[in-house]
Amino acid sequence: MLLDGRKTADTLNEALKVKVEQLTKKPKLEIILIGNDEASKSYVKGKLNTASNLGMEVHINYLDEAIDQVSVEALIQKLNTDKDVHGILLQLPIPKHLDSDHLISLIDYKKDVDGFHTMNQGLLFQKKDGIRPATPLGIMMLLDFYNIPIEGKHVVIIGRSQIVGAPLSKMFLDRNATVTITHSKTKNLPSITKQADILVAAIGKPKFVTKDMVKVGAVVIDVGINRVDKKLVGDVDFEHVEPIASYITPVPKGVGPMTICALAHNLYALYLKQEKE
Q1: Average pLDDT over the chain, rounded to whole?
Q2: Is 198 in contact with 177 (CB distance < 8 Å)?
């Protein structure tokens, strides 16, 4: 059965829209987009459309690819102190001459809609209230929408990035799953992935997960977005894995829409916290 991220996001966003309409002012998101990366432009457009449909305000700061580090830092500091701004998002990737880790660290963690700031990552790993990274949060929201049990299940994650694999593993642990993280140095990978009740592929290699790596009846979450012959494909060989999986996310219209949905929910949460202060 398909885990339809687009349908799920639409349903969850409709409920959020009702809440936003009751607010005294619009939650505002500032997006920093550096350069002309086509994928980044597409992602930003999706975020803009979703937020606008929800009655939120989004402003995109288009910066030249050659911009210097100091100028980006100054913009972030300006947005940090603007009380009308509730969320700040630095669209990744950014040009290599810029220090993305430092720029993310400069964003006020109370406006960190992506959940990438060290403070929010620390709050996650200490199981305290904070903003969770959008893709892992979106995955958890999708599983919950379909009432897929997590407690007691064996979750295998392929990929250990700070954006998806590492934070997602903690979120599953907090829901009482047993978690195994695998990566490029893991030996006998198929023998491990075949044990998974829930298998998450987040490595950026097209169709890497094949049928022989998946247990019959497993729930398969495909985080990958790869362009092959002008078509988007995931990290999972969908055509051959789908028949044996109990649930599987498509690419596109799977995890992608849920990431944007989670961002909108994060912005709403940030707004509520800031308005209370």
Answers
A1: 96
A2: yes
Looking at the 3D structure of the chain, how many domains does it have? 2
* CA–CA gap between residue 223 and residue 241 (Å, rounded): 15
Q: To the nearest 10°, the Cα dihedral for 196, 219, 170, 226? A: 100
Peptide bond into 93 cis (omega under 30): yes
Strands 57-63 and 154-158: unpaired
Q: What's 206's DSSP letter?
A: T
- Domain boundaries, position 246: 134-256
Residues 138 and 96 in one domain: no
In a domain, 124, yes or no: no
Active site (catalytic) residues:
47, 91, 114
Are 192 and 180 within 8 A, CB to CB? yes
The answer to pTM > 0.90 is yes
Strands 247-248 and 57-63: unpaired
Q: What is the pLDDT of residue 200?
A: 98
86/263 Cα distance (integer angstroms): 12
| C-beta separation of 174 from 127 below 8 A | yes
Q: The CATH number of the domain where 40 resides is what?
A: 3.40.50.10860
